[in-house]
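Fold this sequence, please.
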Amino acid sequence: MRRLISVFPALLAAFAVTLLAALPALAIVPIVPTTIGDPSFQQGPPAISGDRLLWEDDLGETGAWRVLTWAPGQIDPTMMDEFAPPADSGFSPQQPATGYAISGDRLAWLDFDGDYWQVYTWKTGQDDPLQLTNTKYDNTGVQVSGDRLVWEADPTGSGNDQIYTWKAGDSSPTRVTHNGLYNTQPEVSGDRIAWQAIHADQSDETTYPVYTWKAGDSTPTALPGGSDMSDSVQISGDRVVWLDPQGVVTCPGSRGRRNAGLYCGA
């Protein structure tokens, strides 16, 4: 034991010398970002899911915009689409929340066909993008989760947008709402959709109820707890959350209970 104690300081010193000698090899290598887009063009804000990116850029004097995607292993981005919005539209790089979206390897975006905004989608492995709409009115607010897309459009020109959805395998989009409300800001998670609706009641007071729909439902459901000025609807799985004057509201929740601003009850 005494011999072991006597050689311990020497062993510790030798370990320290070895560790110091190895420090250069253990030095942290600085991370160098990879420049993907062309810096000579104006870039729209990127959307990302996993390792895949999606964004738009401006081709400058041509007035055209490109939809681009990139994933590790690619040297250059892949151009998915190119369109030229009208000069008087005031178009600028669209935010991911309205003009393009990504979920895994599924991309969704809006393309201007010369008259109206149409919905397109593409998934890794497919040869060409798929055009989902060919309407005589604008489509907007496209979102995607897995293989399901959701967006809004005003088919009658009345100012009352309706909610539409499509999932891989569907022959055509499904119109979810058939009402006189302005249905807007749709969100999607899996096969469930949620959105805000705006209407004026008979006393001309504007209300903002929250609605949800899931594949297989015959009609949308107005969520209990939705009230005046409901806003900021978000969804994850079967849980919907939004903001109203009572605070943050979630559904499903504790039926009939109101606790710290969380409420969902009949």
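Residues 25 and 259 are 55 Å apart (CA to CA). The two ends are 76 Å apart (CA to CA).
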